[in-house]
Every structure is written in structure tokens, then in C-alpha cells.
Amino acid sequence: MNNWFKFLYLSVFLFFTSGRAQETLTIGEKQTLFSKILNEKREIWIHLPKTYNDTTITPAKYPVIYLLDGEINFEYFTGMTDFIARTPYADIPECIVVGIKNTERTRDLTPTKSQKKSPVNPDVTLFADSGGSENFVKFLQDELKPMISKNYRTQEYSILVGHSFGGLFAINTFLTHPEYFKAYVANDPSLWWDNKVTISRTKDYVEKNKKFPAGKSLYVSQADNEEQQKNWNSDMTQAIEEFKEIIEKNGSLNYKHSFFKGETHGTVSYPGNYEALKFIFKGFRTDIKQLAKNPKQLEADYKNLSEKLGAEFAPSEAYLNVVLTFMKTNDFKESEAYFMNMKNRYYPKK
Amino acid sequence: MNNWFKFLYLSVFLFFTSGRAQETLTIGEKQTLFSKILNEKREIWIHLPKTYNDTTITPAKYPVIYLLDGEINFEYFTGMTDFIARTPYADIPECIVVGIKNTERTRDLTPTKSQKKSPVNPDVTLFADSGGSENFVKFLQDELKPMISKNYRTQEYSILVGHSFGGLFAINTFLTHPEYFKAYVANDPSLWWDNKVTISRTKDYVEKNKKFPAGKSLYVSQADNEEQQKNWNSDMTQAIEEFKEIIEKNGSLNYKHSFFKGETHGTVSYPGNYEALKFIFKGFRTDIKQLAKNPKQLEADYKNLSEKLGAEFAPSEAYLNVVLTFMKTNDFKESEAYFMNMKNRYYPKK
So which domain of life are we looking at (chains A, B) (predicted)? Predict the structure, then answer.
């Protein structure tokens, strides 16, 4: 290949490469962060909501969802948050999703050191590296969260989402550091861990504190017992039900427990996470037809929601634009003026 | 800015740009296709399953899901198909997802020309461009499907998925061209369209053919009536229920109808599509613990599934590898040998 031809060939190749690159569908980006606490590099997957870079609106701040087992859950989860935050049918506010990829999963997600013989083959010892969750939660609180707040426009509302050991971790974090997150989601949590140490901690918590902190949400999903038995997980089911009983006796928590018929331990996160977000943000969905007749309803709804969630939520500019278009198209002149006023109040143009 | 500085600045900028580009998370790519039938360029979003480019296994073929309203549904849908196709908990086979982006949605998805005054503002005429679905289905069958089969490794099993007008389109396609797809998913379909013309077509079909073709699946989801009324959609609900009655009287179809409490017209696709795929591929999930004791079960299950679906399905090499690892780790020697033999039979190494 002579040089001139090589140049042409490379140019064409580069052209197509960059042409193709523009045509990919992306949902986020990977970042790395060196954790001093864990003494290792961690990979973080970040998804920004649809309006994040919309230059036609005032730059907004967004709640943040910290998603454990990022490598397995990130794709459907980010698709879901965007889908159910679409106006005018939005069930939740738009969220930033931070997926955390595992390095040593058992070490990070389990609260105590506890080894176990494999139920299938007693020659195999499981969980030799367990017991590092206190370190891992420090990493989340003192290193990851500050990095996210520094680099992205975040609102003071964050949710921790986990499954299996990740669910165990979420519940342990709720009990030991309830101030770290506003809401906790535990899908089929491994509460059987270490002779149900987390159940004991829950009992201790209730005994000592009488009730749970205000403005917190906890959602627990549970897979089908029959399916669990097929996978040697019947002690998983028992522990979750025991936890449910303790929590349900204590009425101060915004708590929901769901049993999913037909779901396995491996699939329950999909419907569980959907229901969890709809549960946490219950009251967020607005009825645009009602707003035409009763425009004051919107701020009343947001006031209730903010009280329930223990954080300030206000109608987004993107949503107010949709409301305004609706009022204009359908000739609800008074309501249109009302919401125009509201928009100017929340989002004054400089 | 002097030239030397400009050069440095640009170099650094390019370096970071390309560095960042490598770190994005992608879920598919956009392709364009000029349709002679529609006389326009169409944008198609393509998602390939996780194992598609896995060089450690024999190149496999995959069922194809044609997803209408691609721009709204592609992200969560592709995340979902990958998630529920994960071994060993897989509920469905890995699938290629083809999202179709709209140009003139009403034109493409409605079966007849039918205009309507806006229920909110009678001065506005809706659906002036309706009635082009026969053309659009020809585009799918004669242009899009051949392009996908030519460029990707596809299995002879395809599913059409739509919502609202897309659901109307799916049901109309099922009635007028049942041979085009093996399964049809209609989320909250707009069966009220044009004085319920599709209900009449369904009655005619049943009267003429007595029963539906074998090996076909049809799934219909329905949003909550109360929520529908808030959005002026109560005639939507009535028509879907009328359709359900006609179909349920005719027992020959692999049919499921689901009502989703609390879901709106805009949100029902999310749980609907999940349930639809689990319904269509019911029988696909295997019990790996049972396989240890009774390895013959696997091919028996696949035989039943293939009969039900009207297409050949066989255990994937990726799945057989998971089964083999399980048998080896847990010292099920006989079953391991059995599945090694099966793997060599289906996927002989050249």
C-alpha cells in the first residue's frame, strides 16, 4: 500500500468509524474512582435523565438512585426510570442512576464474617471473604456520593437499591445508617445471612428506638417460595417473612412488602424495582385534566409529597411546559395564565 | 490564540473526547433504510443480545422482536429482554430487538381513514392522515424483515409489539396477515378506532375461519379503567373488553389478557411487555436442580415449547455451558457427561 493510498484509506476508515460511532444508542458512561477506603479502583456507571442537557430549560437538579450490582441491573433500570418519568404520565421524577460495578461482591455486601459449606457440595466453603459492608457503606457515603454531587446536579434525595446480598446490604444500611439515604429498596434480601444477624439487629433497633426515623421509605420484594425451593433458597423466604412481621408491627415507616408469584430469586428485581419506585413516589402522578379545573391542586400535591419524602420537591420546568401546552391547546385560558405565573415564579428567566 | 497553543488545545480536547467516547455504555445502533413502499427513509434501532458476538461459542441465531414506537420503548425493552434471558434464571431466549422509529405514526398504525373531533376542543380535527397500516405492514414484511434477516443471524420466530395505535396495528396485522409474525403483543390497543372496525373484523374472522391458526400467541394488556377515564379514554376500555369476550370464546389461540390496576394508558406497556414475553415463552424456564437428577427433561421441555410456539427451539450453547459448569461444580458426574454429549451433538466443534 503506498502512502497516498494509505492516507485515503485511513481517512475513509476514520470517517466511517466516527460516522458509526454517532449512530450508537448510549444510555450512560463509565467512570472510575480510586477508593482510599477500599484501597482499590471502582467502576461506576452513570445515567443522566432525558432533560439533563436540555438547554431550553433552567438547569435542574435530580434525585440520585444508587444501584448495586450495576453490571446486571443498569440497562433495564435506566430504561425504566426514563420511561416512568415521561410526562404527562410520570409516576416518578426524573432521576440520575449511579450503577456500582462489583469487585468483591460478598466482601462488600455482607455485614459480618460468616462462612458456610455449600448446600450442594459440602467440600466447598462459601463466603470466605465476607463481612466488609461497613467499609463499603463508608465508600458510598464519604467517597462516591461527594464525587457524584460534585460532578452532577443532584437533589437532596437519594435511594439505595439492592438485590439478594445487595438487599441485605440495603436493610443493614437502613438499620445502621438510616440518615445516609432517604429510601431503601431490598429485592429478595439474603436476611438468612449469618444466623439471621440482620433480623436480630432489626429487633434491637425497634426495642431501642421504638420507631423508625420520619420521612424514610423501605420496600422489600420477595420471590415465589416454590421457585425458591427449587434453588435451595427456602431459608431466604423464612427470614424475609420474619423481617416483615417485625416491621409491620412498627407502623411509623413508609413500608411496602410484595410477594411475587412465579418470580425466581434471579428475576424478582425486575418487577420489584418497578413497584418500589412507584411506591416511594406515590402521590407524584398528577391528573392533568383535574389541573385544568383546579390548578391549585398541583402545589398542594407537591407539598404532601415533600412532607412524605422528607425532602423538597417542586414541579419541574419540563413538566410545567407540558401542562402549559395542554392548557393552551385545549383553550383553558385561566389555568394557562395560572401555570405561566407558577413557571415564572419557580424558573424566572434572567 | 496562537497556532501552537491552538494545536495543543485541540489535541488535548480530542484526546479527552475519544477517551470519553470509549467509556460510554451502548445498547444498540441506529440504521436507516429507504422504503420504496412508504417512499421515505426510516430509522431503525437495533439491539443485539449479549452472546451475539461471543467468539467462544458457535454463532447462534436469535428470535426477532419488532418493537413499534421504538423511540419511546427501546431502552427499557432491550434492558428487559437481556435481563430475563440471563442464565440460569432465563424466562425467554435471547432476542434481537428491532425498534422502529415513527415518522407519521397515525398514518402507519391505523387500518382505515377516520377523522375525529378532539374530545377536548371540537375545533381541532384529529387523525387527518390516518389509514395507512396496510402499506406499513408491507414495509415490515417485504423490506424491513428481509434487511434484518440479511444482516443479522435470525431465527424463524418473530414477535410484533405495539401500544395504543401500535396495539391496534398488532391486532389488525394478526387478523389480516396472521402468517407474518408468530406472536402479537397489544398493550392497551386503540380498538375503539373508527367505530370499532377491528372488533367487526375479529367477528368476521371468527365466523369465516372458525378458529385461529395454530402456533400463534396473542397478548393484550389493559390499563386501569379509572385512570383511563381521567384521560378521556373510557371508550378504549370498552372496546378492549369486547375484543376479549370474542377471543376468549374461541379457545384455539394461545391468548392472554391482563388488566393492570393503577396503570395508565401511558405506563401499562412496561408491566405489559414483561408479562407478554413471559407468557409467550412460558415453558422456557428450566429447573437446573431437576436437570441434575433427570437430564432428559431438558430436551423434553424444548420439544413441548417448540410445538407450542410453532418453531424449532433448542438449548443454546451458552445455556449448556452454564449447565455443564453447574454439574461439574456440584459433582453430578453422570449428568455432566450427558450434557457434554448433548452439547457436542448440537454444537460440534469443527
Answer: Bacteria
